[in-house]
Amino acid sequence: MDFELNKEQKEIQKAARDFARGEFDKELALQLEEQHRYPTEIWKKACKEGFIGMHFPIRFGGSDYGCFENALVVEEFCRQDSGIGAALMTAHFATENVLFFGIDEQKERYLIPVAEGDSLSAGAFTEPEHGSDITCMSTVAELHPKGWMIHGVKTFITNAGMADYYVVLCQTDPNAGHKGQSMFIVDSTCPGIQVSDVGAKMGLHMVTTGEVHFKNVVVPKEALLGKEGRGFYQVLQFFDHSRIEVAAQAVGTAQGAFDRALRYVQGREQFSKKIAQFQVTQHKLAEMATKIELARLITYKAAKLADAGKVDPKITAMAKFSAARAAVEVASESIQLLGGYGYMTEFEVERFYRDARITEIYEGTSEIQKNVIAGSVLKGN
Amino acid sequence: MKKVLIVAQPEDSCSMELLGVAEVFQPCLIQVAIFGDDLKLSKEKWTPWADRILGFEHPQLQWFDTDFAARVLAPVLLEEMPDLILTSRTNPGLELLPVLSGITGFPAFSDCLRVRFEDGDWIADKAEFEGKVIHSFRLPVGEVPICMSVRPGSFQTPAAIQKKAADYQLMSVPDHCPPRREFLELLDSSAEGVDIRKSKRLVAVGRGIEDQEQLEVAESLAKALNAELASTRPLVDQGWLEKSRQVGTSGVTVNPDLYLTVGVSGSFQHMGGIQGKPFIVAINRDPKAPVFNYANVGMVGDLFELVPLLEQEILKLGE
Amino acid sequence: MKVMVCLKQVPDAGEGEAFLQQVGEEVQVACDDWVLNEWDGFAVEAAVHLIEEHGGESMAVSIGDEAVEGVLRRALAMGVDQAWRLQPDSNSADDSMRLAHSLMGAALTWKPDLIICGAMASDSGNGLVPGILAGKLQWPFVALATGLKWDGKSFLVRHEIHQGMESLEKIGAPLVVSAQSGLNQPRYVSIRGIRRVAKREIPMKNMADLSLSPLQNHVELVDLKRRFPPSGAHAEILQGSPQEQISQVIQRMREQGVFTS
Ligand SMILES: Cc1cc2nc3c(=O)[nH]c(=O)nc-3n(C[C@H](O)[C@H](O)[C@H](O)COP(=O)(O)OP(=O)(O)OC[C@H]3O[C@@H](n4cnc5c(N)ncnc54)[C@H](O)[C@@H]3O)c2cc1C
Q1: How much is the ipTM here?
Q2: CB contacts, 8 Å: A50 with chain C
C-alpha cells in the first residue's frame, strides 16, 4: 500500500488550498450563509481554474483526473469553509451519471457547461414517499409520441431551481419494480417543471434544497440516460462514487473544525494557563486528530479503489459512514473546546457542525451505509 | 594595515554607521566613496572621519543611478583591493552591492548585523527566515576583498575617533560609461492620504489581521485611544489601507510617543520606520515574535480577545 | 520578447518555526515541504503577463536537484512556456556567486531580453543573486520593481528607492529586474494547468550544456552555525489573565503619561 500522494497530487492539493485560502473569505461566508445565497462568483472562478469536473475527460471540459484527485480538492475546499466547499462540490452533482452512462452527445451537452461554469446540475432521486428505499419510484415516465412524458414529485433536491438540468430516476415499467427504472436528463426549462421550497434547513445554507414537480413534462427520446430498465443499477453505481466525495467533504469539514479549535486553544488562557496546556484539552485534541486521520485513510482507500476500476461498495460505505461520523463528532468537540464562543456564529465551528451533519444523511444515510456493509460482510466479502 | 572602503549612498541617513563596522577592523585605513552631481556637502561630512575620499561627481549622479555608480566604482575597487567594501542595506544598497560583487568577482555578504573577531577569525552574523534565526559566517578577510551590506541601525557611529583629515581625490568618470537607466519620474505614493508622520499615538496593524473587515477591531481601539492607524506593508499591498499609513523602510517614518502594535511580527523593515523613543506596546500570539525585542511591554495572546478588552478599559477611563 | 525567470524553492515556513530545530548547539533547517519563494511568484506572474501581452516566450530556471522540478512545474502550470533545471555547482550549492554563475550560463545560452528574479529569498533574505547575475552579465539591474511595462522599445520600471519613494525609469533590453511584493497578484495554479504540464519533461542542463567553465579562484564565505536569536530581550511580558494583563498595560501606559487621568 502506498500512503504518499504523488507529486502531481500534491500540486493539486496545494492549488486547491491556495485557491480556497485566497477566495473563501470568512465574512463573505457568514454573509452568504445568513442570506442563503449561492457563492456564484467563487463557483465561476473555481470552474475557470478547472476545479469543477476535474474528473471529466479533457474533451468534455475536465482534466481527466480521478475520483481521488477530486476528493483531495473537495477536502481542501471544505476544510477552508464547510459551506462554500459543499456548495462547490455539489455544483456538478449527479454528473457522474452522464459521465458513466451517457453517450458522447450527452456528455458534450451536459458535462462541458458544468465544467466551464455555465451550468449547475442536480440529481432527482428521492421522493416524498421514497427516501432511503428507492426500489420503486412513484415518478413515472411513459412513452409519448415525442419521446417520454414524466410525471411525479422529487424532493430534497440539491440545487433545485438553480440547476440547468436534473438527472431524474423514473419508473418506466411500473410492474417491474427496481428493474423497471430508467434515468433521464431533463432540462430545467422544460414546460411543466415546478420548483417549491422545502422549508428552512439546519445547514448547507448556501445551496438550495427543494421539491421539484414534474407535471407531464415531455422530453425527447435522447433524454434517456443509459439503458432503459437499468436506472436503479445506475444510481447505485453512481452512489458508489459520489459517496466517496461526501466522505471527502466530511474529512475536510472535520479538519476545518479541528484547525479552528486548535488555534483557539493555543491562544486562549483560562486560570492563567493556555487551554492547550490542560490535559483534558490535549486528550480531546488527540482523539479528534486520530478520528480525522482514520477517516481520511479510508476515504483515500475508497477513492483509490474506484480509480483502479475496483470500486468496493463496502469500503465506500465504510468511508462515508465513518468519515461522516468523524465530522460530526469532531465538529461537536470543537464547539465544546470553544465553549460559549463555539456556540456563536462568528466563530464558525457551529456552522461546521451543522454542515457536517448532512454528511450522515444525504446520498444514503449512515443506516443505509451500514446495511451495505452488513450485507457485504454477511456474504463473506 | 587593513583597508576599508565605505560606499556612501547619497540619500542614506545611516551611512555614518558604517564607521562602526570599520571600527571593528581598527587599525585600518578608511576610504569613502561619495557620489553626486555636487559633492561639497558630503565631502565636508566625511572629511573628519576618513583617510581618503574618492569623489565621483557627474550629472548622471544627481539621482543615485546605482548602475552607473557600480560601473564607475568597480574598476577602482579592482585596483585598490580593499579588504572590506561596505554599504548600507538600503533599497539602493540592495542594487549596488551585488552588482559590484558581480562585476569584480569579490564575494558578497548581505545584511550584516554584527561582526566580531574570534579565535583569529572574522565572524559576521546575519538574520534568516525573517529574523527567526541568526546565521554566522566566517569572512575570508585578507584572502579576497569582501563586499558587505550592513543593516541600518545595527552599528553605531563611533562617538569619537581620532580626528582625521581626509585626502580628497576627485575621480574621473570614464566616457565609455554611458548611463543606461533613464530617470523619468519620482513617485511618492505615500503623499496621498492621511499623514501619520506627526501623530503622537499610533496603533499599528499587521498580518494578524486576516481580512479587511477585521480591521475594525483595531480601528475602534485607535478611536478609543485617539490614535491614528498605522500598518505593516502586507496590508497595504492588499489594498486594505492607504500607502501613507505604511510604516517602515519602504513606507513613512514616524515619531510618536505611543506605538501599539497588533498582530505585527516586528520585521526590521517595519520597525525601521519608527524614530525617537516611543513607548512600544506589542500584542502578538507568538511569544517568539521579534516585535518583543523592540517593545517596552508585550502581551502574548490573541489580538481578537485582547484588543476589544483593552478598548473597553480605555473607554472606561473616559479620556 | 524572451523573458527568463529565476526560481528558488524555500522551506514552507507557514507560521511558527517547526521547521527550525535545535540540534545540540545549532539550529538546523529540517524541512520536506518546499514551496516557491514568495517573491519569485511575483516574478513568474510578471513574465507570463508580459508574454501574454506582447508575445514571445518565457522560461523558468531553477538550480538544484530533482526536487526543484516542483517549483518549475508550478511556473509551467501558471503559463511559463519552458523550464530548465540547472545542475548545481558541485562545490557549493548555495553560494550566491556560484548560483549567479550558473544562471549566467543559462542567460548566455537562451539569450533572454529580460531576466526577472524575486527581490530576495524568504529563507536567506540575501537578495544577492539577481544583482550579481546582472554584474556578471554586465546588464543593468533594477531591484524591487513594483511596476514593469514594455513600451515597444524599452522597459518602464517602477521601483522602490529610499524612504518610501519610488522612481520610474526607462531602460533598454537586456536587463535584470527583481520583483517586489505589490508588483502584481500572482494567478492561481489551475487544475488544467497542472494537467497540461504533468507529463512534460523538464530538461536538466549541466555546465557543458551551458558552455560554462567552472568558476575560477572564487573564495567563499565559510558557513558556520545557525542559532535562535535571544528573544524577548527587551519587552516586559505581562502575565496573568487577559483582564489582568489589560489592567497592567493601562497602568504602564499611565506611567508613561499616555492618559491624563
Ligand atoms: C525591501 C523591502 C521593504 C519592505 N518595507 C516594509 C515597510 O516599509 N514596512 C513594513 O511593514 N514591511 C516592509 N517589508 C515587509 C517586511 O519584511 C515584513 O514582511 C512585514 O513587515 C511583515 O508584516 P506583518 O508583521 O504584518 O506580518 P507577519 O510577519 O506575517 O506577522 C504577523 C504576526 O501576527 C501575529 N498574529 C497572527 N494572528 C494573530 C492573532 N490572532 N493575535 C495576535 N497575533 C497574531 C503572528 O504571530 C505574526 O507575528 C519590506 C520588505 C522588503 C523586502
Answers
A1: 0.93
A2: 190-193, 195
